[in-house]
# Entry
Amino acid sequence: MYKIILITPLLLSLSVCAAPMATENYVNQKVASIEIIATNAAAVAATAIQPPGTNGFLRLEDLPAVESPDETDPRAMRLFHYGDPDIVITPASDFGFDSDTGTITGYTGSNPDIVLPYEIGGVPVVTIGISAFDGDIVLKTLTAPKTLTSIGSDAFADSSLTSLVAPALTTIDTGAFFVSSLTSLVAPALTTIGDLAFRSSSLTILTAPSLTTIGDYAFESSSLTTVYYGGNQPTAGVGIYDGTPTNLVSYVTDPTATGWGDNFRDRPVVRLPLYADAVYSGGSLVVTEATKELHQDTYTNLVWRNVFSNGWVWLVAYTNTPGGGQL
# Structure
C-alpha cells in the first residue's frame, strides 16, 4: 500500500492538515494548502507511488546557514563554509585572483580536487570568473565556500570537472559548463542559469529548488534526464531541452508550487506528493492508501485504481479529456 493524495487532471486546491513524518525532516513536509495537478497516465502513476526519500527534497540542514561564525576561529570558519572543520583548503597561491572584484581568474595548481578559499588576502571569494577553468583536464572536484555566489561565462567549459559543491551559488552565466564532464549538481540557492550554460555537457541530474530563470538552450544536447525544481514554474528561454534524452522528467518538489502543467517544454512534469501520517480536508480524513496498480481504459480514456479510505473501497478514475475530472 502507498500513501497518496487524490489527484485529478484539473487544478485542485485542497486545505489540508498534514502530520509530518517522524523519521524525516523535509522543508516541505507540512503545508496549509496544496495544489495538485494530474498529468498523463505515466506521470499520474509516478506521482502516486513515488516513495519518500531524498529525491530532490532538501533537508533543513542542507539549506545555507544564516548564522555568522566566529571569524577569529579558523575551524569555525571551515565548518561554516564547508561543513568540515578539518578540511584542507587549497593554497591561495594556486589561483589567479582579482582582489578588486573577489574573482578567481585561473588555476595553476596540480591537485585535481580543489577546496576554494573563502577569502584571499582578506577579500571574500565571490565569483569564479570568465574561462577560469576553461579546458582544464586535471580538475575533478571543486568544493566552494558560502561566499561564492556566481560562476562566470565559460568558467568550466570543456573541463574535466565531475563534481561541484556550491551551497550559496545563485548565478551560472552563459556557457559556464559547455561540454563539461559535470554529471550532477545540487544547488539549493541557484536562481539563474544563463544561455547555453550546460549545452552538450554530461549533466544528468540537477537539483535546483530556488530556480526562477533559465536561459536559451541552457541544457541543449546535454545528458540531462532528471531535474528537481522546487517552487513555481521558472521563466525559461527557447530550446532549453532541445536534444536532451526523451526520458527527461521534471519533478516539482514543493507541493504548494504553481504554474506547472502536464508538461514543461515537451517533457513530462511529475508532482511529488506531500507525505504525511494523515491528510484532512474540511476536518475530515481523506484518502490515505491506494493500490499500486494503475489501470488504463483506452476506449474511455480513463485511468483508475482502487483506493481505501475510512473502511470503504473506492474506484478512483482519472481522465485527461478537456473539462474532465475525477469520477
In short: Helices lie at 41-49, 74-82. The CA atoms of residues 192 and 213 lie 5 Å apart. Residues 12-55+276-319 form one domain. Confidence is low (pLDDT under 50) at residues 1-66, 309-313, 318-327.
